[in-house]
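BUG: 3D viewer hangs when loading the predicted structure for this chain

Environment: internal workstation, default settings.
Expected: structure renders.
Actual: progress bar stalls at 90%.

Input used:
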Amino acid sequence: MADTPLPAAPAAAATAPVLRLSGLRKAYGVGTPLEVEVLHGIDLTLAPGEFAALIGPSGSGKSTLLNLIGLLDTPTAGEVDVQGTPTVGLNDAQRTALRGRTLGFVFQFHHLINAFSVLDNVMMPALLGGAPRDTATRDRALELLDAVGLARHAHKRPTELSGGQQQRVAIARALMIHPPILLADEPTGNLDTHSADDVFTLFRHFNQTFGCAVLLVTHDPRIAARCDRVIELLDGRIVADRANPVS
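C-alpha cells produced before the viewer hung:
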C-alpha cells in the first residue's frame, strides 16, 4: 500500500515560523493512578534562520519537548506545527515523511552506524528518503564532509575517528536533506572544551550559510551564551525566553 500523502501546508509568507507549538502538553501513564504530566501547555515559535538554546535543569522536560518537536513522540494535548503543517492528526507514515524532509537531528551520542563508512553514514538520510545512490548524492555528502573538515576520512569507519570527529560527521549527516530545522540534544555534552567549541562553530556556520533554524539543548552556559535566543524550561513550563545580547 502506498503511503498516505501529506496534506498540503497552507500558503504562508516567507517570515512565517518554521515551528509553532500551541498549548503543548505531555503526560505519561494517562488514565492510570500513576499518570504524571511533564509538559504543561508549552507555547513557542521558531523563526526561519533563528539560533536558539533550550536550557533547564535535568528533569525539566527538555528532551521530552525535543522528541515532540522532532515528531518522535506525540503530545497528550496541543499542536506541533512544522513548516505550516499541523502534525497531531498525521498518521505514522505522514509523520515520518514530514520528519524526513524538514528536520535534522544531532544527539549527544552520534548514533553513527559503525558497519558503514563515514560517507555512507552521511548519505543515509537522503537514501532513506528515496534519493538515488548516484554521483549527485555522493557529491553532496562529500561537500558536507569537506565543510566539516573530514572529506579525507570519507571511507573510514566511524570507530576510526575521534569523538569530536564523529560528532562532526553527525552534523554533516543531519544537513544532508537541507533541513529548515536543525535539532540538537546536548551535542557537545561528551566533548572536551576545544571540540565543543569546534562543533558549536559548525552549527553557527551552517545556520548562517543555509539559513536553517537551530534549536540546541545544552547544559553548558558558555554554549547558551553564544546563541541568539535562550529559552529556559523549568518543571515542564517555559519560565524565560529572551534575546541574548552577548551573542
